[in-house]
């Protein structure tokens, strides 16, 4: 049966709409349902001089592969007209509404996955909606207390114990319970979603030199090592904690199915240095498939034809693979 993938372009003033129009120039083996403002997409396509035909989404019609130059549209209207590159907090509610529609359709089983374009987290907060990221938003909507952010590029998967929180809160947020929940979700999804029989997970320390035996921080001794030992007793294959500054070398990477990092800017700069533009962000532990781009809104590139759609292709292709693997 043909799969149906929901796509949210994200911030209307950013490059999300451009990326959606770029990927619509080819045919797809799945139905692509874009949750967005039709006028936004048509205006941006005109600006980019790219052909685009929108067909209204009909949930009762069987899903059909998407033809080149077309998109299926689940309409959600902007609050105010959008000027590429210019943020307008009045459209914050529009952005979150597109996420809600896509999320609901995934929870109900109407869609087989959701692929998200970049949102501007600050703008959504300016609009009066507390929002730290799609990962946390979808977890909340799906009633999931624990999900895991993992980014992947050729030869490297990086998962995070904590996501969008200030650095000052990181140490307290890494409890034995959180670390164990994240590791179990990562291990389970590497097996079930990625077909790795016995995943080998390499784990970073929190402190420089993984704490240097307690001389540079005690979190490894008090939290990380006991948590990992208990997980090993459950049969999870873990190496570490290793110092984060030396873990990303071929000797370890060639053996690792994923590197578990403790906070956002411990793991993601390395991942993006290796594969910015061709990486995918995957939320593990949700009751549905969600993938995303590895970059942000790049406001200055909106409407210019200079946005690289590489990561967006990667996100859609990964979502299709994961949806097909579910059968
Ligand atoms: N998945 C999401 O929703 C994400 C959203 N963001 C949001 O994006 C906003 C801007 O964040 P920044 O840190 O400036 O990151 P950014 O990724 O938007 O831009 C960083 C640099 O990379 C370039 N760039 C980004 N994507 C590109 C593409 N596809 N093709 C060519 N060049 C590209 C930009 O022009 C800029 O020079 C923030 O509000 C942040 O919250 C950031 C990361 C992920
Ligand atoms: N740096 C990754 C990022 O910010 C993406 O977060 P999310 O919006 O996918 O939760």
TrEMBL record:
Requisite cofactors: Zn(2+); Mg(2+); Co(2+)
Keyword annotations of the record: Cobalt, Cytoplasm, Magnesium, Metal-binding, NAD, NADP, Oxidoreductase, Pyridoxine biosynthesis, Zinc
Pfam family, one: PdxA
Main location: cytoplasm
List of residues binding substrate: 134-135, 272, 281, 290
UniProt-annotated binding residues for a divalent metal cation: 164, 209, 264
UniProt cofactor note: Binds 1 divalent metal cation per subunit. Can use ions such as Zn(2+), Mg(2+) or Co(2+).
Residue ranges of the TM segments: none
BP-aspect Gene Ontology terms: pyridoxal phosphate biosynthetic process; pyridoxine biosynthetic process
Localization, UniProt: Cytoplasm
EC id: 1.1.1.262
Pathway connected to this protein: Cofactor biosynthesis; pyridoxine 5'-phosphate biosynthesis; pyridoxine 5'-phosphate from D-erythrose 4-phosphate: step 4/5
Top-tier EC class: oxidoreductase
GO cellular component terms, A-Z: cytoplasm
Superkingdom assignment: Bacteria
Record field: catalytic activity: 4-(phosphooxy)-L-threonine + NAD(+) = 3-amino-2-oxopropyl phosphate + CO2 + NADH
Listed GO MF terms: 4-hydroxythreonine-4-phosphate dehydrogenase activity; cobalt ion binding; magnesium ion binding; NAD binding; zinc ion binding
Function: Catalyzes the NAD(P)-dependent oxidation of 4-(phosphooxy)-L-threonine (HTP) into 2-amino-3-oxo-4-(phosphooxy)butyric acid which spontaneously decarboxylates to form 3-amino-2-oxopropyl phosphate (AHAP).
Subunit structure: Homodimer.
Record PANTHER family: 4-HYDROXYTHREONINE-4-PHOSPHATE DEHYDROGENASE
UniProt xrefs under NCBIfam families: pdxA
Family per record: Belongs to the PdxA family.
Additional comment: The active site is located at the dimer interface.
Protein name, per record: 4-hydroxythreonine-4-phosphate dehydrogenase
UniProt organism field: Thalassotalea piscium
Gene: pdxA
């Amino acid at each position: 049966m043909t799969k149906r993938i929901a796509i949210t372009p994200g911030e209307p003033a950013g490059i999300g709409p451009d990326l959606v129009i770029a990927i619509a120039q080819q045919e797809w083996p799945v139905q692509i349902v874009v949750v967005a403002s039709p006028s936004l997409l048509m205006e941006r396509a005109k600006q980019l001089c790219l052909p685009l035909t929108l067909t209204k989404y009909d949930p009762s019609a069987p899903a059909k592969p998407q033809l080149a130059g077309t998109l299926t549209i689940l309409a959600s209207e902007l609050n105010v007209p959008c000027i590429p590159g210019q943020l307008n907090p009045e459209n914050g509610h529009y952005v979150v509404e597109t996420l809600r529609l896509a999320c609901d359709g995934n929870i109900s089983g109407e869609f087989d996955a959701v692929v998200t374009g970049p949102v501007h987290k600050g703008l959504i907060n300016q609009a009066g909606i507390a929002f730290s990221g799609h990962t946390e938003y979808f977890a909340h909507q799906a009633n999931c207390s624990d999900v895991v952010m993992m980014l992947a590029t050729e030869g490297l998967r990086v998962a995070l114990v904590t996501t969008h929180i200030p650095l000052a809160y990181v140490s307290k947020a890494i409890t034995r319970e959180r670390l164990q929940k994240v590791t179990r979700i990562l291990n389970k999804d590497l097996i079930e979603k990625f077909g790795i029989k016995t995943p080998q997970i390499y784990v970073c320390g929190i402190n420089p030199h993984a704490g240097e035996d307690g001389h540079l921080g005690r979190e490894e001794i008090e939290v990380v090592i006991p948590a990992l030992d208990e997980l090993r007793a459950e049969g999870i294959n873990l190496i570490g904690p290793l110092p984060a500054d030396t873990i990303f070398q071929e000797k370890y990477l060639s053996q690792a199915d994923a590197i578990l990092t403790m906070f956002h800017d411990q793991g993601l700069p390395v991942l993006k240095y290796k594969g910015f533009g061709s990486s995918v962000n995957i939320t593990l532990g949700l009751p549905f498939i969600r993938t995303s781009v590895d970059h942000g809104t790049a406001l200055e590139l909106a409407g210019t034809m200079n946005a690289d759609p590489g990561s967006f292709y990667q996100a859609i292709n990964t979502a299709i693979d994961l949806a097909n693997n579910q059968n």
